[in-house]
Write a structure and sequence with these properties.
The chain is of the alpha+beta class and about 100 residues long. It has a domain at about 35-99: Ribosomal protein L7/L12, C-terminal domain/Adaptor protein ClpS (Ribosomal Protein L30, Chain: A). Helices cover about 50% and strands about 20% of the residues. The chain is built from 4 helices and 3 strands, in the order H-E-H-H-E-H-E. It has helices at about 10-20, 35-50, 50-65, 75-85, and strands spanning about 25-30, 65-75, 90-95. A 3-stranded antiparallel β-sheet has the order 2-1-3. The radius of gyration is 20 Å and the shape is globular. The termini are far apart. Involved in the modulation of the specificity of the ClpAP-mediated ATP-dependent protein degradation. Keywords: Hydrolase, Protease. Binds to the N-terminal domain of the chaperone ClpA. One of its GO terms (molecular function) is peptidase activity. This is ATP-dependent Clp protease adapter protein ClpS.
Length: about 100
């Protein structure tokens, strides 16, 4: 009787696929003509828990660059953050983080 072998998935293939599956996503807040800068700082402080310096820096990036990455992590969490930003009246989207 011959020896039976079991084909195991190639470990290299599994390693190559794992980083893609675990790649972070980002919540992006976009500049708008409606919300005051002080309000955006308050939203970032209240919702994300950022200190005043971090919240102000992010708000200034939104104001000057037109957008800022305000959070990074699992897709589901970033979608929740984007929805929360919408609830606060801010424009936000979710995207896959770039390498």
């Amino acid at each position: 009787m011959g020896l039976m072998t079991t084909a195991w998935p190639d470990a290299d293939v599994a390693r190559e696929q794992a980083p893609a599956a675990a790649s972070p996503w980002q919540t992006i807040v976009w500049d708008d003509p409606v919300n005051l800068m002080s309000y955006v700082v308050r939203v970032f402080r209240d919702y994300f828990g950022y200190d005043t310096d971090r919240a102000t820096a992010l708000m200034l990036r939104v104001h000057h660059d037109g957008h800022a990455v305000v959070a990074e992590g699992a897709r589901e969490q970033m979608e929740l953050h984007a929805q929360a930003m919408h609830d606060y009246g801010l424009w936000a989207t979710v995207r896959k983080a770039t390498e």
